[in-house]
Design brief:
Two copies of one chain form a homodimer.
Chain A: E1 5-6, H1 16-22, H2 32-49, E2 54-59, H3 62-71, E3 79-83, H4 87-98, E4 102-106, H5 116-125, E5 128-134, E6 136-137, E7 142-143, H6 146-156, E8 159-163, H7 175-178, E9 182-186, E10 197-202, H8 204-211, H9 222-229, H10 240-256, H11 258-278, E11 294-298, H12 305-316, E12 318-319, E13 321-322, E14 331-335, H13 342-358, H14 367-379
Parallel strand pairs in A: 1-12, 3-4, 3-5, 5-8, 8-9
Antiparallel strand pairs in A: 2-10, 6-7, 9-10, 11-14, 13-14
Chain lengths: 381, 381
């Protein structure tokens, strides 16, 4: 028998406690009891994101959150500086475009970090209202320097809209210090909650823009959510079961403590990188800007995606993520976010060694695992 | 001790089997295993809605489904005949307006059924592209004649967009025979699945309009969902846990059989109506068009909402729904949809008698209950 292991960059495996929470009987969504759960989620999210801003909860995927952020701030004809460099950075520009906005693209090679000077140049050349950044670009395994982008936004008086979907809860995000006006979070990533909820922190400056925005939409209009905030509710029926799960997941995040949690993710990432190098694999992302929640790795030239991911799934029940768009079939990705612990990672790495060797890739069994063990060994008490 | 009972028109109580299903470990959402679950949900929805049309699944509330239907078909300047008569009928017009469409409103007094002649007149006076109907108007407890509206739409070559959120799975809905081009369903109502999923059936005619539509939106753009249908997936991460729950709930719907299920809802509704009349209460909705999934009742003049709903919750743990908008504080509503059985209803009615009597309303204890018993007694074998 082979146990199934989810090692994709979200949805991530949930703890039995979070899963069981979703099995609780439903209660009315307009009751004081549910209000209490919502308020606790909002407060905990503020702590996790280091912000005093309002938190909005939307039933929908992370993309629903991205859509809500853009639709509520960008009007037809508005320019918006969009930092590209991966599938999700591109999606943000697509959303701007879909609402009639004009994305001023900052090109970034896939796998590289954005150069703040490039951003500043595009900002100066354009008449933009906002800058969008995908903080942690899941498709390439890169984390961008959000603080530097926040400074540029502040200097030029632009809104800073950050997709923190795969960073919040796993890596350092300081919404208030970095001046993030809208930070978008997905439930099913580093927070290790079930998929289906998007959350957004919204600054006073952003509310100002939103209240004057004329973009046409309904379900994803943040102005409606703001009105409901006063009554501690949501404008449309929230997924009560998912909110139960989220609430339990956030308890676990804060019980671990954000500092410990970030350190765990960084150790997992470093161990992964050292291990794959010791397996004669090439990291796809520039190591200086490598993500701490997902690692992208080139598929060796003589091997196929099937040789790596197909075999991992078939033989060991481990689901890894493939490459998307321009890197489809060229890279694979290991998600090490949420509830992944050191032994989960060592397990995956040991399976990967076996699979690569069987598929004809040159490596010495155990060398990758021991490189990871070194990192982990240095980390623990 | 008092057990909590959810008797609102959704979210409804779920069976332990459906609740437990949500506690299953997550699997990858782009895997053959998940594909299989999705396809089964789609097929079962087709059977429940009596249609061969495509089924689209969106992570979001029922309103997300309404938004997707309108945003994907109505462009700026398009006229749309909107049948009003309740909060949700009005919401449909609001959504049309929010996308720059022009609602041609067919006024209907709250609590009354729409007169098809009124619809035809507005259709003839306008240059509309579509007709919207809230099949079962939850806010007033009225079910409208969808078949008649479908005929008008067909005769005039208009799209027929129907909100079936609180009818599908509880009352008769014949999407293909009635010519419903887009039928919107919510998971948390008559289907007795967890809240957070919207589904839409989309006809070939509707796809034709959608493919030529230029409304600007992203997450709720049905064209993206159509593209993903070919690959048996959704364009954005679906809520895997909710889909597990939905799948189990649909199994239960089909195990009961739609004919039995509709009959049960009709019996529950009739028993409720007879009981409340025997309690000297006044039905709010015209009995000829009274909903089979929710019953709306006037609060007696000398009583307040607190006297009825407050006391029901406090003393017996039963959550009933209040009136919304113009009937706030004037009516209360009993949801008898989803998994509500005959004994659940008798329980609620017996509690209601006690509460009303305690609050000073004139009635004879047991008369309402026995009226309901009569109806149920005639129904069973």
């Amino acid at each position: 028998m082979v146990k199934q292991k989810l090692m994709i960059p979200g949805p991530v495996s949930l703890t039995p406690e979070v899963l069981q929470e979703m099995a609780r009987p439903l209660i009315g969504h307009r009751t004081p009891d549910f209000e209490e759960i919502l308020i606790k989620c909002w407060d905990n999210m503020k702590e996790i994101m280091r912000t005093k801003n309002d938190i909005i909860l939307i039933t929908g995927s992370g993309t629903a959150g991205m859509d809500a952020a853009i639709a509520s701030t960008i009007e037809e004809g508005d320019e918006c500086v969009c930092i590209m460099g991966g599938k999700f950075g591109e999606r943000m520009a697509d959303i701007v475009r879909s609402y009639g906005g004009i994305p001023r693209e900052v090109k970034v090679d896939w796998g590289k970090g954005v150069d703040p000077d490039d951003v500043e140049r595009v900002v100066e050349e354009s008449d933009a209202k906002a800058i969008t950044l995908t903080h942690n670009e899941t498709s390439t395994g890169v984390i961008h320097d959000a603080k530097a982008i926040g400074e540029i936004a502040q200097k030029h008086g632009l809104l800073f809209i950050m997709d923190g979907i795969t960073s919040v809860g796993g890596d350092l995000v300081e919404v208030d210090r970095w001046g993030v006006d809208i930070c978008i979070v997905g439930s099913q990533k580093c927070l290790a909650a079930p998929p289906g909820l998007a959350m957004l922190s919204v600054s006073e400056d952003a509310w100002g823009v939103i209240s004057n925005n004329n973009t046409r939409n309904f379900y994803l209009n943040l102005a409606s959510y703001k009105k409901s905030l006063k009554k501690n509710t949501t404008p449309f029926t929230p997924s009560v079961s998912l909110v139960y799960g989220l609430s339990k997941a956030l308890d676990a995040v804060l019980k671990e403590g954000m500092e410990n949690r970030i350190q765990r993710h960084r150790t997992l990432a470093k161990a992964t990188r050292e291990a794959v190098k010791a397996m004669n694999l090439e990291l796809f992302a520039d190591e200086k800007v490598a993500s701490n929640t997902v690692t992208s790795i080139r598929i060796p030239e003589k091997l196929t995606d099937e040789d790596v991911r197909g075999r991992m799934k078939r033989e060991f029940g481990i689901l890894l993520a493939g490459g998307q768009a321009q890197v489809k079939g060229k890279i694979f990705r290991i998600g090490h976010m949420g509830n992944v612990d050191y032994l989960d990672l060592l397990t995956v790495l040991s399976a990967l060694e076996i699979v690569l060797k069987k598929s004809g890739h040159g490596l010495v069994l155990g060398e990758g695992v021991s490189a990871a063990q070194e990192i982990i060994s240095n980390e623990i008490g």
